[in-house]
Structures are given as structure tokens and as C-alpha cells.
Amino acid sequence: MSKRPAIFIDRDGTLNEEVDHLHRPEEAVLTRAAGQAIATLNAREIPVLIITNQAGIGKGKFGWKDYEAVMHRLGELLSVHRAHIDGAYVCPFHPEAQADYRHEDHPERKPNPGMILRAAEEHGVDLSRSWMIGDKHIDLEAGRNAGCRVALVRTGHGSKVNPALADLVADDLAEAIDRILATWP
Ligand SMILES: [Mg+2]
Questions:
Q1: What is the pTM of this model?
Q2: Which residues surround ligand 1, an ion (CB under 5 A)?
């Protein structure tokens, strides 16, 4: 099977509205038109892969069950638009985390590209034609480190990031996806 491009998406502040240490499913809200935009990717069989640092797990601020509950809720919200994500990659490691999760520079913690590289391997992705979309500098850096093009969204923390670091700057995820689709034949 020939490799295909994918869209890698940061979760908090990009897929869903920013909430500090989001861990309550009822607080999960998709950013504007994210469901419709992801449904378009699904229809074109472009893998949609979530790439998320969750140091709150490593620091003991919330647990895996909370993380799973939020992901389940996001799945429900996407399903309203007949949209789904094809994979979610999560990194709980952090230099100041508790015992098992303490790691000075884990290869999967953004800005390192480990999660993106693993996702690409598992989904047969051509990284050079793929994009990473996020609201933080570390998202852009992780995408670059993996060999992708990178898009900055202005939701979440995005307005604090230097736009010159991105190949594309959009108001939100839906606009970023629309514009990326326009670059693909
Ligand atoms: Mg974010």
C-alpha cells in the first residue's frame, strides 16, 4: 500500500477549546466547525491523528480514566457530524512528573517527534505530505522535527505564538483543514 498524507492534530486548544488541565468530559467543547472539517477528512480517507501531551497524568492531577472519559466525550461530539478520529497518541511524561512518569526529555513528549513518528508508522503515513496543526510552539516544533508542514491556529494559546514559525496560520482548526485541503490535488 502506498503511503498517504495525514493530518496530525493537537488536542487541547486546537481540537477542543482550551481548559486548563481538561479532565471533566462535560467541559469538553469542540472548536468552531471542527466536526464538519474532520468529517471532510474522513470522507477523503485522510487519517486524522491526535497528538497530545498530557503531563497532568504524570503529575497526578488527573488519571487515565479521566483522560479516556474526555476522549470518549470528544468522540461523541464528533459523531454528531459523522466525524471520527483514526488514532490518539498521548504522552504523560514530564521532567517534574511523579516517579514512573518522570523523564527529563522523553522522545514522545512534544516538541520531540516520537508520537508523530509512531502514528505515521502505524497508519502508513507519508510525513513529507502531512501536516501538524496546533496552538503552541511545541506543536509546530514537533511537526517540523517529524518532517511535516505545520499550521498554527489562533485558538487556545495560538495568539501568543510567532506566526513566522508556521507554514500556515488559521483562525481555527476548521479553517486550517480547509486551507490544507486546498493545497492537495
Ligand atoms: Mg494545545
A1: 0.97
A2: 10, 12-13, 135, 156
The CATH number covering residue 42 comes to 3.40.50.1000
Q: Is 12 a catalytic residue?
A: yes
Q: Which set of grid coordinates corresponds to residue 56?
A: 497532568
d(CA 86, CA 76): 14
User: Which residues lie below 8 Å from residue 133, measured CB to CB, with a gap of 6+?
Assistant: 7, 8, 9, 10, 14, 139, 150, 151, 152, 153, 173, 176, 177, 180
Identity (one letter) of the amino acid at 49? L
Give me the pLDDT at residue 147, please. 98
pLDDT in tens, 169-185: 999 999 999 999 999 87
Angle at 71 between CA 68 and CA 76, to 5 degrees: 125
- For 36, the domain range is 7-183
